[in-house]
Amino acid sequence: MTTHYTRAHWEDRLSTLVPNGRLFIDGKAEDAASGETFTRIRPMDGKPGAVLARGNAADIDRAVKSARKAFESGIWRHREPLEKKKIMLKWAELIRAHGEELALLETLDVGKPVMASLTVDVRLCADGIQFYAEMIDKLYDEIAPTGPNARALVRKVPLGVIGAITPWNYPMIIDAWKLGPAIAAGNSVVLKPAEQSSLTAIRLAELAVEAGIPTGVFNVVTGYGEETGKPLALHMDVDMIAFTGSTEVGKLIMGYAAQSNIKRVALELGGKSPLVVFEDADLDAAASAAAWGCFYNSGETCHASTRLLVHRSVQDALIEKIRAVTASDITLAHPFEPGAQIGALIEEAHMEKVLSMIAAGEKEGARRAFGAERVLSETGGFYVSPGVFVDTTNDMSLARQEIFGPVLAAIPFDTEEEALALANDTIYGLAGAVFTRDMGRAHRMSEAIHAGTVWINTYDMSNFSTPFGGFKQSGFGRDRSVHAIDKYCDYKTIWQQF
Ligand code: NAP
Fold it and tell me: Assuming Cys at both sites, which of 73, 88, 171, 340 could form a disulfide with 197, CB separation 3.0 to 4.6 Å?
């Protein structure tokens, strides 16, 4: 990485940055119909940040009408596949070209280190758009085996207008997971980003139009969940909601779909993922994976490895190694510091919630091995240090509730059967991992852990070729991979009798 990415470099860029917080409807920046706005508080220093349009049902309706008009006109879905591919590839290139600006906007909104925003979030956002761009001219339809007197085409057709509702933890990445396949398949999209993280969504929409995506194909309505997300999910002319967020709101989304037009729903929800370490594991590798798996992005990760299930005989040694790797590798600092590995939590209210969950865990009997305290309060920002709790049992709140902060609960076990039962004793099923040198056991455990992704002797490795999503109350439907396109399409049969 080049050395000019100093704190001064980012301060300098910030001094000339003018974030656009307006709605993006029909290819134009718009104020909310009500004229109302709200101000984002920056998590890195608690200062007022961007001013955003406070959308409501009228704005959602305008955006849906624009998306519907674009879809029905065929201006995008009926365009030559090769041409569509080139336009989406240009969009990916524009995202890369505006990488520093997008990284800065993301960090101002969510408080993660700006270098992580640049090297992880911007990169994966552009890669995601590119992945689906490259699929556009490789999608074939089918001819069904009807016999000699008929021909039946089985066509994969776009659904129409997609409502995308996204969270604040990886805004650009999760937006791309939805925008890439939905737009590549020929749909129009109305995106409602989380109220805390709208700036990059608006910029992505501007860059889409600059790349040549027709106006109306991608609209953004900012605002609060109840005032914008709810009317989007209840809208009678939206064909599908692609939602990522909490299990609690996911349940509401299913209800809204049922109460309105039985629109399709895909849900990427919460998690409480187990990382299982057996006595024969490489403890250095396990410690590094446990620390990064739980503490990366300050623990604000749906598939964070928040439950460490560890064989009793190696628990103390493993916790010591996690302490060491956290101290040496996972630097918590102001997000503009070049060495920062983790930054601030999303907002003050969330930090207070994380701290109160920690306090509740201690009251239940969990013992703090290290960390899990508010730090850097003199900056005005919302920082909590990575921490581990021991003497935890799987029925304690620290092991059952999604904390969404850098808090690891270590739970000892004695046998493989017990480890498996603990791993699966959760309402969630997003991810898990097993660390052992016994490959038979690794395969038994990875098959039996009921989760959308299970890693063996590693954590959080992925690329666009693998589907991502959960079982149980972690939701259904998959982001990423070639399969994500299916979610945004339906099958249509055209039967011709001879
Ligand atoms: P959230 O509170 O559920 O919000 C998610 C989105 O839903 C936001 O845009 C939010 O808008 C909107 N929303 C809130 N209430 C709504 C309503 N009544 N109707 C329609 N939309 C509504 O989740 P979050 O706090 O942003 O994100 C953290 C959660 O996301 C965690 O549970 C995490 O596990 C999950 N997550 C899952 C995945 C995955 O792939 N499985 C990935 C990332 C995050 P406002 O922000 O304006 O309220």
Answer: 171
